[in-house]
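Supplementary Methods. Inverse-folding protocol.

Structures were first reduced to a C-alpha cell string of length 676. This string, shown here, constituted the complete conditioning input.
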C-alpha cells in the first residue's frame, strides 16, 4: 500500500482556515462562478436532446423518444449532485462567516454556577478491540465538563460459549474498571485541593500570590499526568498517534500555558481574586471527575434483545432517572423498579446526552461548545447539536484514507444544508437534549415486555428516522460551524468492512422518504421550505447522484448525446471539490480516487437499497450489520470482488468504443474511471 501523505491533525478543516474575511468572499465568488458555469453548460447540453424528444414524440418515434428522455434523466442525475454541492458550499461558507466563536470566559462560566446540567456520554459497543475502546473512553472522560458520566453500553453476548469471545468480554469489563480507577485517583487529589481552598477562604486565610503559585503548580501536575499516559499508546497505529497528540499532549500544553499565565500574573503584581481562584480550583477538580461505568442490556430478559445500535441505546435511555434492582426469575434476570434504599442500580437523570461511536475521539472542548449553544437564549428548541467529525488522519492504508476523504469532504453538505434548516443528526457523535427524546418516545411490545423507544430502529439509519420525528415535534438539529476540529471518527480498514458499513447506510434512505414527505407536507410555509425539501430528499436519495456519472459514458453507446456540453460541468465541480480536499490535507491525485471509490460502491448502494426495500415489503426485521473493527481482514463477498474486477474491464471497452466513434469526451470520462 502507498504511504499516506502527512496530514497535520491539528489543522482546521474549514476551507478558509486563514479566517480572513476576504478569503471567504473569494471562495464564495469561486462557488458562484461554478454554479453559473454549471447551469450554462447544462442548458447547452440538454437543449438538443430536449428538442429531439419533442420532435420524435410528435412523430410517434417512441423508441427514439425514450432514449432522448433517458439522456435527459441521466444528465439530470449527472449534474444534480454537482449543483447541490456548489449550493451547499455557499451555505457552508456563509455559516462560518457568520459564526462568532464564544470566548473562553463564556465557555468556562459553567464552573461558576452552583448547579450544572447533568451530562452522560453514551458509547454503544459491540465486540470492539480493547485498544480502540481504551482511547474512546479516555477521550470521552477527558472532555472538559464539571462532572459527567461515561457509560460504555456493552452489547456483547453476556455468556459467550466461545472462549475467545469470553476473554474479550472479560477484558472489556476489566478495561472499564481500570480506566475508572485511573481517573478516581486523580479526582480525589484535585477534589481535596478544592475543599482545602474553601476551608482557607472560610477562615479568611486567602493569600492571592500563594494561591496563584499553587494553582500554577497544580496545572503543571495535571499536564505531567497527561504526558505520563502517552507512552502506553505510542506503539499503536495512526489512531493512537492522533490520540497522543490531540487528546493527551495538546491539552497538556494548554495546561502548562495556563500555569505560566497565572504564575506571570502573580509575579507581575496583579493579584488573583478569590472568585478567580475558586474558578480555577473548580476547573481543576473537574478535569478528571468523569465516572466511567458500563451497562449490559442483554443480561436482562425484560430489556430489548434486538441486535442493533438503536435498541442498545434505547435500553439504557429508557431506564434513566429510575432506581432499579435485579430480580432472578425462571426465565432469567429482570430489572425492576425499586426504592432508593434497596436499589442496586441508581440511574443518572441527565438533561443532556452525548452519543458517540466506539471508534470516535472527542476533544476537550466538545461538550462546552455544544452546551453553550443549547443553553443560550434561542437554543431552547435545539434537540440535537453536533459537529462534523473528521476521519482519523495519516492512515498507511490507501483505501482507509480515501474512504476517510469521502467522509471529510461531506462536511460541506452537512454545514451547507444546516444553514437552510435541512440538517440531519449524524449518529457517530452528537449532544442530544433528553427532553427531546422523551417527547418522541413510544412504548412497544417485545416478547411480552413493554419496551420504551426514543431512537427509532425501523430502518438501519436510526439517526435519520429519529431526526424526522424530532422535526415533526418542533425540535431543531444544529451544526456547530466551528472551524476547529472537535471530533474524529474511525473508518473501515479494508474493502470487506467498508462494504458492510455502506450497505447499512444504503438500507434506510429511501425507506424514510414517505415519512419525510409527510413531515414536509404537514409543515407550515411549504413554499418557503422548498430548499429544505430538496436538500433533505437529496440526503435520503444520495445514491442516485452518482448514477449519472456512472451511466453517461455507457449511454453514449446507445445514443450519443449531442455535443456533450454537460461534460464541461465537471470542471467547476471538480475544481471546488479538489480545492476543499486539498485544505483537508489530501492531494490532487486523491480526487479521482475518491470518485472511483464512489463508482465502485454504487453496486453496494443499489444492492443495499433493494434489499432493504424487499425486507420492508415483507415486513421482516433486518439484522443490524455491524462494521468490523478488528485488525483481521474482513473478506468481501465474491460478487463485489468480481464487480471490482469487471467494472474497470467494462469501462475499458466503453472507452475504446467511444473513442472509435469520435466521442472523445465520453471516452475520456470512462478512462478517468479506469485510471482512478
Amino acid at each position: 500500500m502507498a504511504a499516506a501523505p502527512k496530514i497535520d491533525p491539528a489543522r482546521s478543516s474549514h476551507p478558509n482556515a486563514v479566517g480572513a474575511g476576504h478569503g471567504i468572499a473569494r471562495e464564495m465568488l469561486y462557488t458562484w462562478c461554478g454554479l453559473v458555469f454549471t447551469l450554462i453548460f447544462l442548458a447547452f447540453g440538454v437543449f438538443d436532446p430536449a428538442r429531439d424528444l419533442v420532435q420524435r414524440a410528435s412523430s410517434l418515434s417512441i423508441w427514439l423518444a425514450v432514449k432522448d428522455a433517458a439522456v435527459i434523466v441521466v444528465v439530470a442525475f449527472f449534474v444534480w449532485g454537482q449543483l447541490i454541492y456548489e449550493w451547499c458550499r455557499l451555505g457552508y461558507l456563509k455559516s462560518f462567516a457568520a459564526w462568532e466563536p464564544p470566548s473562553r470566559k463564556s465557555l468556562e462560566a459553567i464552573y461558576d454556577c452552583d448547579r450544572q446540567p447533568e451530562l452522560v456520554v453514551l458509547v454503544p459497543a459491540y465486540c470492539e478491540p480493547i485498544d480502540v475502546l481504551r482511547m474512546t473512553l479516555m477521550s470521552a472522560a477527558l472532555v472538559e465538563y464539571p462532572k459527567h458520566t461515561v457509560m460504555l453500553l456493552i452489547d456483547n453476548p453476556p455468556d459467550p460459549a466461545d472462549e475467545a469471545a469470553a476473554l474479550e468480554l472479560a477484558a472489556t469489563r476489566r478495561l472499564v474498571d481500570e480506566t475508572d480507577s485511573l481517573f478516581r485517583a486523580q479526582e480525589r487529589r484535585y477534589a481535596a485541593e478544592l475543599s482545602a481552598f474553601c476551608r482557607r477562604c472560610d477562615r479568611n486565610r486567602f493569600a492571592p500570590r500563594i494561591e496563584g503559585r499553587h494553582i500554577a503548580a497544580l496545572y503543571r501536575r495535571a499536564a505531567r499526568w497527561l504526558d505520563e499516559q502517552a507512552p502506553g499508546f505510542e506503539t499503536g497505529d495512526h489512531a493512537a498517534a492522533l490520540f497522543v497528540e490531540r487528546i493527551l499532549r495538546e491539552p497538556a500544553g494548554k495546561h502548562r500555558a495556563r500555569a505560566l499565565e497565572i504564575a506571570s500574573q502573580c509575579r507581575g503584581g496583579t493579584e488573583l481574586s478569590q472568585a478567580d481562584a475558586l474558578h480555577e480550583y473548580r476547573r481543576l477538580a473537574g478535569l478528571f471527575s468523569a465516572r466511567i461505568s458500563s451497562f449490559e442490556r442483554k443480561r436482562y430478559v425484560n430489556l430489548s434483545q434486538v441486535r442493533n445500535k438503536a435498541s442498545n441505546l434505547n435500553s439504557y435511555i429508557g431506564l434513566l432517572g429510575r432506581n432499579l434492582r435485579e430480580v432472578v426469575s425462571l426465565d432469567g434476570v429482570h430489572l425492576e423498579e425499586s426504592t432508593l434504599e434497596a436499589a442496586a442500580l441508581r440511574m443518572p437523570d441527565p438533561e443532556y446526552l452525548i452519543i458517540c461511536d466506539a471508534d470516535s475521539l472527542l476533544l476537550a472542548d466538545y461538550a462546552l461548545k455544544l452546551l453553550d449553544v443549547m443553553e443560550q437564549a434561542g437554543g431552547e428548541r435545539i434537540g440535537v447539536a453536533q459537529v462534523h467529525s473528521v476521519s482519523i488522519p495519516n492512515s498507511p492504508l490507501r483505501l482507509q484514507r480515501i474512504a476517510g476523504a469521502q467522509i471529510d469532504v461531506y462536511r460541506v453538505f452537512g454545514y451547507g444544508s444546516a444553514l437552510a434548516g435541512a440538517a440531519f443528526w449524524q449518529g457517530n457523535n452528537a449532544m442530544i437534549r433528553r427532553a427531546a427524546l422523551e417527547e418522541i418516545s413510544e412504548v412497544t411490545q417485545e416478547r411480552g415486555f413493554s419496551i420504551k423507544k426514543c431512537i427509532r430502529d425501523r430502518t438501519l439509519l436510526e439517526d435519520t428516522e429519529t431526526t424526522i420525528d424530532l422535526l415533526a415535534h418542533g425540535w431543531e438539529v444544529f451544526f456547530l460551524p466551528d472551524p476547529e476540529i472537535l471530533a474524529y471518527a474511525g473508518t473501515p480498514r479494508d474493502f470487506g468492512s467498508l462494504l458492510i458499513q455502506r450497505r447499512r447506510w444504503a438500507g434506510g434512505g429511501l425507506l424514510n422518504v414517505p415519512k419525510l414527505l409527510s413531515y414536509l407536507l404537514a409543515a407550515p410555509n411549504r413554499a418557503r421550505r422548498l430548499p429544505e425539501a430538496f436538500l433533505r430528499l437529496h440526503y435520503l436519495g444520495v445514491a442516485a447522484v452518482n448514477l449519472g456519472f456512472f451511466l453517461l459514458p455507457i449511454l453514449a453507446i446507445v445514443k450519443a448525446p449531442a455535443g456533450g456540453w454537460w461534460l464541461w460541468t465537471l470542471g467547476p465541480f471538480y475544481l471546488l471539490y479538489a480545492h476543499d480536499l486539498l485544505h483537508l490535507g489530501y492531494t490532487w491525485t486523491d480526487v479521482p480516487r475518491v470518485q472511483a471509490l464512489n463508482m465502485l460502491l454504487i453496486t453496494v448502494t443499489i444492492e443495499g437499497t433493494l434489499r432493504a426495500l424487499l425486507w420492508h415489503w415483507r415486513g421482516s426485521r433486518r439484522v443490524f450489520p455491524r462494521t468490523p473493527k478488528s485488525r483481521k481482514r474482513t473478506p468481501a463477498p465474491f460478487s463485489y470482488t468480481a464487480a471490482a474486477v469487471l467494472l474497470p474491464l467494462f469501462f475499458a471497452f466503453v472507452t475504446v468504443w467511444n473513442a472509435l466513434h469520435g466521442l472523445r469526451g465520453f471516452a475520456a470520462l470512462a478512462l478517468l474511471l479506469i485510471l482512478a
